Amino acid sequence: MAKEPALARAVRQLVPGFRPDAYKGQAGKVVTVGGSLEYTGAPYYAAESAIRMGVDLSHVFCTKNAAMAIKGYSPELIVHPLLPCAAEGDDQGAEPMLAWLSRFDAICVGPGLGRDPATQSAVGTLLERARSLGVPTIIDADGLQLVNSNPKIVAGWSNCVLTPNVVELKRLQASLANLGMLKGNEEEMDDTSGPLYLENETLTESSDPLTEEELLVVQIARALDGPTIVRKGRIDLITNGKIVLTCCFPGALKRSGGQGDVLSGCTLAFAAWVHAKKKQSEKTPPTESGEGGEVSHVPPLMLAAWGGCTMTRACANRAFGFRKRSMVAPDLIEHIGEVFEALFEHGIVQMMRPVGLESLKGCL
After folding, report:
1. What torsion, rounded to 10 degrees, do the Cα atoms 206, 211, 214, 218 define?
2. Are 32 and 61 in contact (CB under 8 A)?
3. Is 260 annotated as a binding residue?
4. Which CATH class name applies to 4-12+24-285+299-340?
5. Cα(213)–Cα(324) distance, rounded to whole angstroms?
6. What is the pLDDT of residues 272-319, one digit of tens each?
7. pLDDT single digits (tens) 208-266
8. Would the annotation count 259 as a binding residue?
9. 290 is in an annotated binding site
10. Does 251 carry a binding-site annotation?
11. Could you say which residues bind (6S)-NADPHX here (predicted)?
């Protein structure tokens, strides 16, 4: 469905170059909202993945009982125990978090969030503020539970990415159907033409009918009318209801816990660069280069999602080659730097490349 070299070239254009006059923060400031008593690993994986991708500052908003554990995992992360949790006797609301939001280039909500009522309520308020500020927002894991309970919180929000797995997608489908927001299969394509696929570097209508699985993802994206959906699976499917991209990069034969959090963190970094690039273009309008061909019509946040999927798969492939059955999420994070350079880096000295990474380039 998607010819990946064209997408890879487009994603490379999102990556900030190295400059001797750059200062801390210009390569991205992000926050992961999640982390509870039971789940401290997930927000760490997401936040650490983002900083290993190359963002300058990676924050975590978590509950008080999770803060010390997450601080202990990495000295690179800036951890704030601002997430309220009724079970911990803390119901301070969202205000302490809201004061920070305008500082970030992108937000990830959900890894290790938990389902405490006070937590979910505060995060709902945070999402509304993020939307009003125009900050790209990635929603995963328990953040999707909030969307299931109130899909309208993301309806029409084009600066949002949802990353459900197959099970989470079914829950979202049921929620939309219960609210009457989801059309039946026979109605779905009546009012508009089918989605566009990226083939041979040009967006065209697919000559093949949508499979039932593809149609469901497109239906959900169209029902929400704005967010990009990343359906994680054997092949990752990325769509906003109008354009469909796939990520077929070879991954690992083992599916360890935490890989979805790594994907969220990698996507978070790309999304931050999209936001930074947009802010820069508002100050200095870019010249028309004509690069990218028809791929330039793919929304930048969809490119960010595709880049996140590709990075995660490539890191998993690399980690599995070393660890096999013992592979766990930190093994993926260990390879982010070298894999990123092999796939998406530009404008730096290409010496001292680790042996074996050239083969990754051949997969794009």
Report:
1. 70
2. yes
3. yes
4. alpha beta
5. 30
6. 999 999 888 877 765 554 455 557 789 999 999 999 999 999 999 999
7. 667 888 889 999 999 999 999 999 999 999 999 999 999 989 999 999 999 999 999 99
8. yes
9. no
10. yes
11. 112, 165-171, 261
* For the chain, domain boundaries: 4-12+24-285+299-340
Do the annotations mark residue 215 as ligand-binding? no
Helix ranges (H only) for the chain are 4-12, 41-53, 64-73, 95-98, 117-133, 142-149, 166-178, 185-188, 212-224, 259-283, 300-323, 329-334, 336-344, 358-361
3-state SS, residue 90:
strand
Q: Is 261 annotated as a binding residue?
A: yes
The reply, when asked if residue 115 is annotated as ligand binding, is no
**Is 347 within any annotated ligand binding site?**
no
170 in a known ligand binding site: yes
Backbone φ and ψ of 80, nearest 5°: -115, 120
Is 171 annotated for ligand binding?
Answer: yes
- What does each C-alpha distance from 254 to 86, 167, 251, 259 come to in angstroms? 36, 18, 9, 10
pTM of the predicted model over 0.85: yes
User: How many C-beta neighbours within 10 Å does residue 296 have?
Assistant: 14
5, 32 in Cβ contact below 8 A?
no
